[in-house]
Amino acid sequence: MPLKTLLPFDMICMGLSVFGLSIFLTRWMMRMGIHDHPVKRSSHTTPTPRSGGVAIALSFAGGILFLLARQYLSYISLTRLITLGGAIGVTCFFSLKDDIKGLSFLQKFIVQALTGCAIVMVGLSISEIPLPYFGVVPLKALGGVLSVFWIIFFMNVFNFMDGLNGLASGVSIIASLFCTIISFLFMEQSMFYLSLTLFFATLGFFIFNFPRGKIFMGDVGSQFLGLIWSIMLFIPTQELSPISIYTIPLLFFSFIYDVSITVGRRIWNKESFWLAHRTHLFQLLNRLGYSHKQVTCLHLCMAMLQGMGAIWMQYLEPTHQIFMFIPYFVLMVGYHAWIFRALKKRILPYRKKRKKKK
Known about the structure:
Blueprint (H helix, E strand, L loop, with lengths): L7 H23 L4 E2 L11 E2 L3 H17 L8 H23 L4 H17 L6 E4 L3 E4 L2 H21 L5 H19 L3 H21 L8 H15 L2 H4 L8 H5 L1 H16 L12 H7 L4 H22 L11 H33 L1
Antiparallel strand pairs: 1-2, 3-4
């Protein structure tokens, strides 16, 4: 859909309002008394306020209401708006309940699955996918199944990767920035408004979360961000946009790789992958002695590289765009190997000392 330019005055008003509201709500959540108490698997050592994601979600909602009032989103049907708003609201409600009282993995999975089904039912799904040698492949009914799987998967990707100060929120901010640039360059209206609003909503929280970790986003934040970004994958195919369907996966490729390889390893070792643990690559790097700030900054640099690749990818033939993942896959394999070599150097001498004592 052609991009109706957001007027400079409206852009300034929306951006400053969303950013200010996010700061206000984050400070408010810091006084709400919802704390994350450290346990053995935690990366922090003192009780810390959590559920800062409420600030991201509510300030984002405020920005969307502003855009609706100014008729920038008037082309979206009322049925779709109500369904999307309801699905996001239900997700945030149960995620906040999880932060306060805790929910089982099955309960969270059911909420995610129902949310995914509701979104697909209003027509938001993957309809086709470009592949080398096969051309643009129509997915038909399979598209709906893959779309629900994608929503569940990506919501959990964000949940698993929200483990260090500024990691998930910082990468989301960078992805929002590049997504805004890409959608502006290719005149994609929905993606432009969503990513721009999400940028300001997340930035207001980020300044409290990084580098000192005064508040965590909690499940309500990670689930909300995962859901919004998973929905953005569907926009190009829905609006016949030239933007690549691979844009969102590339912007978050470091997250997808880390979660996929860790879950795969835990399944191979017959471990319960859904239980909290400290064996993701970013957690292992932290346990090797690198600080929260260092690990997060490394991932922010990766996000910048992924963003630049996402811009470049838009100019490739659709059936060749998937090849853009190859250099990033090689980079992540090198990152993976570096961490495990460092672990072996640390663990092997320790094991030898234990054998000598015995």
